[in-house]
Amino acid sequence: MTPRPILTGFVTVVASCMILLAALVAPAQDGGGGPYAPDGIAVANLVYAEGRSGVCFADQFLTTYARETGQQVERTFVSVQLGEDALFDHPFVVLSGEKTFTLSQGEKDNLKAYIDRGGFVLASAGCSNRAWAESFLAVMHELYGEDVLTPLDTTHPILNTLYDIDTIEVRRATGGSALYGLEVDGRVRVVFTPIGLNDTANAGGGCCCCGGSEIRNARLINANILAYALTH
């Protein structure tokens, strides 16, 4: 059964918080721009580590979010280089992929500045790829220290913003938590999943989970994460 959307007062809150996010995310030296495209908020799919990107991360949650809230949001991702200033034009970004990766120092500096200024990162190991997850964790540990990512369960506001999610559905049982969060100034600014929120079955282009555990109700959870990012 599809969880019932929670919309009471939500649209008004989102509108006010998007204005705040524009001030938080945009670099001080940037006299224009902000996290808005002509058609509304533009969510970025990051390009990193010399051309890597999450090519199999479905964007259907953007349509779900827009339908349920009435907010303006582009229905497809914008491709953005992690090491470029354009990163700061987007309040919400997706960082995903498979296999081991290494970020340049400039990419790591930009990523930390983005998170510290209020940007939100959804980091997902494609097809539950352990090597990618370990590479991402290494970056977080370098930037923020050990044990900075804590498990998120279904009682967390992230899973109860737009929809009430009472179960994180996975293809097969795995050890450990499905979702982890990194808090900055008391607010979650990074959601990381070693299992995968890619929703590859709906990503097109011949994408598949290829045996990974991957979270089945990813579309609704991703819509919730976006809602949380824009209201907290």
Query: Could you say which structural class the secondary elements and strand pairing correspond to?
Result: alpha/beta
Instruction: Report the sheet with the most strands, covering strand number, pairing sense and barrel closure.
Output: 8 strands, mixed
**Run of helices and strands:** HEEEEHEEHEHEEEH
Radius of gyration: 16 Å
Question: Helix count, per DSSP?
Answer: 5
What's the mean pLDDT score?
86
Q: Give the termini separation.
A: 28 Å
Describe this structure as you would to a colleague.
The chain has 232 residues and is of the alpha/beta class. The protein contains five helices and ten strands, in the order αββββαββαβαβββα. The longest helix has 16 residues, at 10-25. Strands 3, 4, 5, 6, 7, 8, 9 and 10 form an eight-stranded mixed β-sheet that branches. It has a two-stranded antiparallel ribbon with strand order 1-2. Helices cover 29% and strands 18% of the residues. It is globular, with a radius of gyration of 16 Å.
